[in-house]
Amino acid sequence: MKCRSCRAPAVIDIHRHNAAFCHPCFIRHCREQVERSIKSFDMIHPGERVLVAVSGGKDSLALWDILLDAGMDADGLYVGLGIGDYSNESWKYARGFAERRGAKLIEIDLPAEYGYDIPTGSSAARRAPCSACGLSKRHLFNKAALDGGYDVLATGHNLDDEAAVLFGNVLRWDLPYLGRQFPALPSGDGFARKVKPLVRLSERETAAYCVLQGIDYIVEECPMSAGNRHLRYKEALNDIEARSPGSKAAFFFGFLERLAPLVTPAAEEEREGLHPCPGCGSPTVSEVCAFCKLAERAGGHS
Amino acid sequence: MIVSAILEHLEVNRESVLVIVDGTLVTSDASVGDGSTVEVRAVTSGGAL
Predict the structure, then answer these.
(1) Domain regions of chain A by residue span
(2) What CATH class is the domain B3-42?
(3) Handedness of CA A98, A49, A112, A156 (dihedral sign)
(4) Which residues contact B23 (CB under 8 A, 6 or more apart)?
(5) I need a surface site. Which of A21, A36, A173, A176 has the fewest CB within 10 A?
(6) The whole model's pTM is what?
(7) A293 touching chain B per CB within 8 A
């Protein structure tokens, strides 16, 4: 195959674009897709301080690399979740990248600083591991962004992630969740601005970006996520995508264009009931926020 | 053998992997010679969001 842009030998074919790219043109393609997302969803403005949530995986490291190459003031944030060797390994990749790029990495150790780890928290709170993990990370990311005075929190959610989450939300017709599923959420009411600049790139593209840029990332999947619902949704969507390239992008961007404006009020309605948690000050609609409840049940503290 | 044929033989969805031959990323129409080292790298991650 030849590169669509320059006709040099291609290194990757992207079926939804019906195109293949050589190494330099593919890197340019990734940067352009991120730049397009940032502009079209008004994610990051010139001169703003960005906090990038990094896991040591391909998506977050690719995002951090692209933002740094774009000249942005972007620091990283790693949360050690206490998932045994997996956490130790992923931490090394996050640190290794920060050192190689000379970038600042903020580190939070959940067991050391909050007194619980994800396996314990999950079982004590009777939550699925990914639910306890997501809840903890969302709280700590938001807190770190606000405490550090960052203008925006960027996460490495890609097109596959967003399409799979949308698929799950549609299966349950979960209107408040659908109303919040937007690539850029504004700040306010105790929330930092949150953006997902990789929404125009598939995870196959972010992995290829890392391979081609020589970015070492943790290839193994988190042992606690094996067989989870989100992976099953991705598998189903990939089956559709293989037969009908472009389906995932059409599904997600069609939702943003046509349906999101109709369901946004459901999320706004929920936001009206927010108040500061008496335990940690984070916004919540319950008496005590979900993070404080989880930490308490797990024998930790918030 | 062609990369796409290898993936079909392995019953692997092309959307969920990268193929790296002798350390180089390749497209689905690339030909793999005898003695080459082929890595079929999964790209699907499914943790907490």
Answers:
(1) 41-297
(2) alpha beta
(3) negative
(4) B37
(5) A173
(6) 0.96
(7) no
